[in-house]
From TrEMBL:
Its EC number is 3.5.4.3. Its cofactor is Zn(2+). It comes from Variovorax guangxiensis. Belongs to the metallo-dependent hydrolases superfamily. ATZ/TRZ family. It comes from the Bacteria. Pathway: Purine metabolism; guanine degradation; xanthine from guanine: step 1/1. It catalyses: guanine + H2O + H(+) = xanthine + NH4(+). Catalyzes the hydrolytic deamination of guanine, producing xanthine and ammonia. PANTHER family: GUANINE DEAMINASE. This is Guanine deaminase. One of its GO terms (biological process) is guanine catabolic process. Binds 1 zinc ion per subunit.
Length: 428
């Protein structure tokens, strides 16, 4: 049955430009499989005339917007947000690996997975590409939780068979057997997707990396996720481990781990050949500004990414990242765009920041037209935003003279309170 929602409506056109209807109408209806999709969207005057009699929910003063897409986050790091360290490598050793070792226990995995998924939704994130840990139980727990909520979610078992302590280090052969079993068990079940997940080049033997590449070729519509060029010490370490590789990114290319649906977090210390490689292979970067600022990793070069035109989108990278909130991530991206002097003038436009965390992120994941937008055909994952939820937000958004000013007020002042509701597309 058709359902309609009347409120202000934010969408994006095919080039990522915002389309805003002050008095809008969103009509959703089940497709042939029963999945709720956007049937029509636009101004109330136009859309209502095409759907006489549709049951309409009025949401005065609210904005309907696409659910946010987080391109890189670690659910097992929920409990180590805000753990300070002089840099990435000591942070991994002192906080990350001890926290992740607890996910051998399915009960712990399940408890954290439920909290994490609820926290994503409270913050308006309806899809994420998520690291689990090296334990199979951690993957099962997150998939089961997302499946129960009807969410589109992508995750995978972390591969790390060297330079990792007891408790998180896996065994080469078994890790690949487990990965293939998990792909067969979960990939494309309901709205779930599998990501082949080598943690980062220093933590996998050549045999494990080769095996990951072989699985990525065999299961061509799975995702691949890893980290690259995040931190100067990490980059030096990779240079020692792979003296023959042209660059850190090239190590992944050599193992067949760059292709559409491959996503690398950070991508800070890249050169021009690396950027060209990303573009040619249609591999995406997950830009994680709160993490890069918190761990002192560096500044993503937005200007060069735009000039070369490789795919990228925004990500929280919790727990290196400091917030689940896409508003905080967009704000940090704005600071970085200016701080790095990679964008002339005013850093990144508010509507572009928003696009990079919704439709642009979906496109970088190979999910254009599926999620991250509210155009007809998209799955109906959307947010009900209340731009008057705090006194200051109410005051600022009321005074906005343009869409950009209104979006900026929400980016600067917004957090989970702004998200009144996240509506997940239900199956029939
Ligand atoms: N590189 C390898 N593992 C990690 C991780 O868990 N977080 C971040 N930020 N970088 C990594
Ligand atoms: Zn990460």
């Amino acid at each position: 049955m058709k359902k309609a929602y009347r409120a202000s409506l934010l969408r994006f056109d095919a080039s990522g430009k915002p389309v805003f209807d002050e008095d809008g109408l969103l009509v959703v209806a089940p497709d042939a499989t029963g999945r709720q999709r956007v049937l029509d969207a636009g101004s109330h005057a136009d859309v209502a005339a095409r759907h006489p009699g549709a049951h309409t929910t009025h949401l005065p003063g609210r904005i309907l917007a696409p659910g946010f897409v987080d391109m890189h986050i670690h659910y097992p790091q929920t409990d180590i947000i805000g753990s300070p360290a002089p840099g990435l490598l000591p942070w991994l050793e002192n906080y990350t690996f001890p926290a992740e070792s607890k996910f051998a226990d399915p009960a712990h995995s399940n408890e954290v997975a439920q909290f994490f998924l609820d926290e994503l939704l409270r913050n308006g994130v309806t899809t994420s590409l998520t690291f689990a840990t090296s334990h199979v139980a951690s993957v099962d727990a997150l998939f089961e939780g997302a499946q129960r909520r009807g969410m589109r979610l992508i995750t995978g078992k972390v591969l790390q068979d060297r330079h990792s302590p007891d408790g998180v280090r896996d065994e080469t052969e078994q890790s690949l057997v487990d990965t293939e079993a998990l792909i067969r068990k979960w990939h494309k079940v309901d709205r779930l997707g599998y990501a082949i997940t080598p943690r980062f080049a220093p933590a996998s033997t050549d045999a494990q990396m080769r095996g990951a590449g072989e699985l990525a070729a065999k299961y061509a519509d799975t995702w691949i996720q890893s980290h690259v060029a995040e931190n100067r010490d990490e980059v030096s370490w990779v240079r020692e481990l792979y003296p023959k590789a042209r660059s850190y990114l090239d190590v992944y290319a050599g193992f067949g781990l760059m292709r559409e649906r491959a996503v690398y977090a950070h991508c800070i210390y890249l050169d021009e050949a690396d950027r060209a490689l990303l573009r040619e292979t249609k591999t995406a970067a997950a830009v994680s500004p709160t993490s890069n600022l918190f761990l002192g990793s560096g500044f993503f070069d937005f200007g060069s990414a735009d000039r070369v035109g490789y795919p990228y989108g925004l990500a929280s990278d919790v727990g290196g990242g400091t917030s689940f909130s896409p508003f905080h991530t967009m704000m940090a991206a704005y600071y970085v765009g200016r701080e790095g002097q990679t964008k002339a003038g005013l850093s990144i436009a508010p509507s572009e920041l928003w696009w990079r965390h919704t439709g642009g992120a979906a496109r970088a994941l190979g999910l254009d037209g599926v999620i991250g937008n509210l155009q007809p055909g998209c799955e109906a994952d959307f947010l009900v935003l209340n731009p008057a939820v705090t006194p200051l937000l109410a005051r600022k958004t009321k005074q906005a003279n343009s869409l950009e000013e209104m979006l900026f007020a929400m980016i600067v002042l917004g957090d989970d309170r702004l998200v009144e509701r996240a509506v997940i597309s239900q199956a029939g």
